[in-house]
Amino acid sequence: MRLRNKPWAVELVNSHPESVLQNPDPEKKIDWASRFEDFSKPLEIEIGSGKGQFITTLAEQNPDKNFVALEIQTTAAGIILRTKLEKGLDNLQILRGDAANLAAFFDENAADKIYLNFSDPWPKTRHEKRRLTYKSFLATYKTVLKDDGQIEFKTDNAGLFAYSVQSMNNFGMHFDFVSVDLHHEKPEIVEKNIETEYEHKFAAKGNPIYALHADFNE
């Protein structure tokens, strides 16, 4: 969902290049080691972070890890940045760019986990290649993730979930966890779940939340 442009967010993003990397040249690799205080920590990436409720909470709860919020909208990046600054999240960087360029932004075997939360379902068949669980994206994730890396995916869209399960299965991925009603799983699973803004809204309406964890191990 496209957010209404907020001038303050644009100004905030432009004034903090140390925290937000904007539209980097896909022909040049990003020096991530220079953007984190301790780059030896595990790295996790959220693709399409929206307003950032999920990724900022995750970063706050896990100071022993580094996180990158990949978000194409400047206003959304500004909202994430505001929270990052308020909470002092030195382990979070914001990358304003297109997920299609993911392999250009990160080295091979760079990340331990990739999060796909409430991605655009692109329901029309002619837009299949834009879905973030299409086979070309899966191939990119496999390159960017470490050998034991994992994808965590959540959506309220039953069609996208069914498509994603089939796409990942066809790609030969292994499923560690699959749920068609995440908020009614065992208490220990529900307690660990960090909601996104959209997730909270959809769940409040009684919509089931679909989720899966998958990796590329045979």
From TrEMBL:
InterPro entries recorded: SAM-dependent_MTases_sf, tRNA_(Gua-N-7)_MeTrfase_Trmb, tRNA_methyltr_TrmB_bact
GO molecular function: tRNA (guanine(46)-N7)-methyltransferase activity
Reaction equations catalysed: guanosine(46) in tRNA + S-adenosyl-L-methionine = N(7)-methylguanosine(46) in tRNA + S-adenosyl-L-homocysteine
Cellular component GO terms held in the UniProt record: tRNA methyltransferase complex
Pathway: tRNA modification; N(7)-methylguanine-tRNA biosynthesis
Binding site for substrate: 124, 156, 196-199
Region: Interaction with RNA, residue numbers: 126-131
Keywords for this protein: Methyltransferase, S-adenosyl-L-methionine, Transferase, tRNA processing
Cross-referenced HAMAP family: tRNA_methyltr_TrmB
Record function comment: Catalyzes the formation of N(7)-methylguanine at position 46 (m7G46) in tRNA.
Family: Belongs to the class I-like SAM-binding methyltransferase superfamily. TrmB family.
Name listed for the protein in its UniProt record: tRNA (guanine-N(7)-)-methyltransferase
Organism for this UniProt entry: Lactobacillus kalixensis DSM 16043
Gene it is expressed from: trmB
